[in-house]
Amino acid sequence: MNKRNKHAPGPKAAPVKSSTSISGWSIRLLLSLLALLLYGNTLTFDYALDDEVLILKNEAVQKGVSGIPEILSPGKVYENSIQPFRPVASALFAIERSLAGRSAAFGHFISLLLYVINLQLLFTLLQRLFRQVHTLFLALIVALFAAHPIHSEVVANIKSQDELLAAAFGLLAWLKFLPKQENVSIGRSDVITGSLYFFLALLSKESAIAFALIIPASRILVLKQPPGSTLLHAVPLLVLGLIFLWIRSLYVPFSIDASADPLLANVLNGAKNMGETSATKMVILLQFLRAVFLPWPMSWDYSFNEIPVSTWSQLTPWLGLLLYTLLMVVVLFRFRQWPIVSFCILFFFISTSPTNNLFFTTGSTFAERFLYVPSIAFCIVLVFLIAKALKTDIRQFPEHGRRPLFLVVGTLVLAGSVLTVVRASDWRNNKTLFSADILHAPNSTRTHYSLASELMKEAQRSVDYRKRTELLNESAASFDRSIAIHPGNFQAWYNYGLNRALAGDTVKAVNCYRRSIELSPTYQVAMNNLAVIYDAQGATDSAAAWYRRVLALDPDNAVAKSNLSNTYFNQGLRLSQAGRRAEAITAYRKSAASDPSNSIPLNNLASLFASEAQYDSALVYLKKAYSIKPGEMMVIENIAAVSYLDGNYPQAMEFAGKALAIQPNAQRSLGVMADTYQAMGNPAEAMKYLQRLQQIR
Asked: Which of 619, 541, 621, 548 is nearest to 587 (CA)?
């Protein structure tokens, strides 16, 4: 039997050690300082944009820690919108509320802290993924990520702590699913802990589901681990992802609110056929690449018509299709030669899939925050490609050979830092943000609408008549621009009507409200405001008709009931003052019937009957009013007075006594007591109450 020659196994390549004098901890400190330099000014910023709905006006969050159980309950609606199911992020907002009240500075501090944590986790992850690559080279990737301007929204907007939390937990999960050393498999405890981190990422924001595919892809393409064991380890992630989607469906409906404008939610809802839909999707996909490569100008909104519905007769969809086809060709046919590039392409595509509208239409056309995690892939591949072009040895990273790379990447970091500081400053408050973005996204109906609404709020707060008028006129001009872009924007028409009502132009206000209702026949607030104007003009029938339309849509609408009651009450007052008693009685009765909780029209009905000495009828209405509001002084004193006039002295004394128990110095009730005792032949007791009256007077 022939024996083959045996050779000693060759030496394995050891992980590259850093030859630089700078330590890993020094790098981490510098990365943290870079984040502070870029976003430290946000600590002086106010709340902005969605912070109002998701934090300031979220009842559960405003309860602080005690509101966390409510955060976990399904179907919560605040500000007429169902809240997204992101309990970890909402719980953090609640904790911040308990610790620092409504302090925006504390919220921005937490956002900055989370960003620093993200940078540290990313640095650790890159060290785990690219063991043979020099530490300083990996630090350049993290520095480029830190300075990427596309992150401005995520760090400068407190609401986007959901993105930061999802990324942090996603990176932690990723780390747990990567072996700490080469040729060492991960243990069961790593799988369990990593799965827990992944689920926390999902509970922070649903887009974190992308990590279920990114993690195994990194192990196969970058670490060259066997697909079989890698996919087996990924099973818990896929199962947890499905469980999360099921839980989320119990909390948040997948359909868009019927009362909302679907075109504002996503421009794809305006596509008329498959051709327009597919072409527009390619344009949106191209926007993801454009924004990560050339992040300027930037905007908080890209809704209608900043990204318009497109057709295949235009060049832009074809450009998007071409670029993504080329990227997929690289993945499919060059993954062995270019594993890192292929992985980064997959990483970018997978991480944008929950939001890029390719597979399903989402609740938003595009947003810069959607690129927070995907930009990791961009930064990795860009620095690797620059190093390859410069023929930089990224393993040994000799000092003489790394200078060109430092120069190129350093220039990119510097440019990104300048853009980041400039863009982050726009997020100081709503007015600075909206004022900037009508220039950055001039074709968006929503940017102009939001600036108009903010200027109108400022006008309402102003006590200077001239300033108030100027602000209302500026606001009106922005509403005009918003409506010119999207004439079907019923919310813009409604707020334009509110603007004109504040300016005293009720004719224009009525036209705006009517147009808003034509566009959205169930828009109750517009109907209510239209009715308010008609009521103020004395057009009772018109006002009542609109209030009834609201009640037909929502029979339990307490505001509409109260307003309808007040409309008829105001009519009753006018008729009563005009001496039209019978018509006034009819109006007061309608008022009482419209809102059974309103005691005032019953009181006025009683006054009309008492003025005609119809005391029995007056007392019927007064006692009904008393049953509604037993503590109402006016009603109690009127019962006492009418009972006295009706000769029912015991009842007069009973209710006068109740009034005095509430207000011991109530002069009218003291007078009723004195008159009643006098009428009953008890002048001594009558004198006691008269003396009390004299002392008060």
From this structure: 541
At residue 415, what are phi and psi to the nearest 5 degrees? -65, -45
User: CA-CA distance, 40 to 487, in Å (whole number)?
Assistant: 41
Query: How wide is the angle at C-alpha 135 spanned by C-alphas 17 and 200, nearest 5°?
Result: 120
What pLDDT was estimated at residue 265? 87
Can you list the alpha helix ranges (DSSP code H) found in 520-580?
524-536, 540-553, 558-577
- The whole-number pLDDT of residue 315 equals 97
Residue 28 clears pLDDT 60, i.e. is over it:
yes
Q: Supply the angle between the helices 274-293 and 374-389 in degrees, to the nearest 10.
A: 60
pLDDT per residue as tens digits for the range 454-478: 999 999 999 999 999 999 999 999 9
Cα 56 to Cα 359: distance, rounded to the nearest angstrom: 34
- Its sign, for the CA torsion 519, 522, 525, 526, is positive
Separation of alpha carbons 2 and 192, rounded Å: 50
Matching CATH number, 613-697, of 3.40.50.300, 1.25.40.10, 3.65.10.10, 3.90.70.10: 1.25.40.10
Residue boundaries of the structural domains of the chain: 24-423, 613-697
Q: Residue 80: how many CB atoms within 10 A of its CB?
A: 11
Write a three-state SS string for 275-297: HHHHHHHHHHHHHHHHHHHCCCC
Q: What is the mean pLDDT of residues 280-307?
A: 96
481: its two tokens: 């621009």
588-616 b/e with 16+ CB inside 10 Å = b? bbbbbebbeebbbbbbbbbbbbbeeeebe
Across the range 341-351, mean pLDDT stands at 97
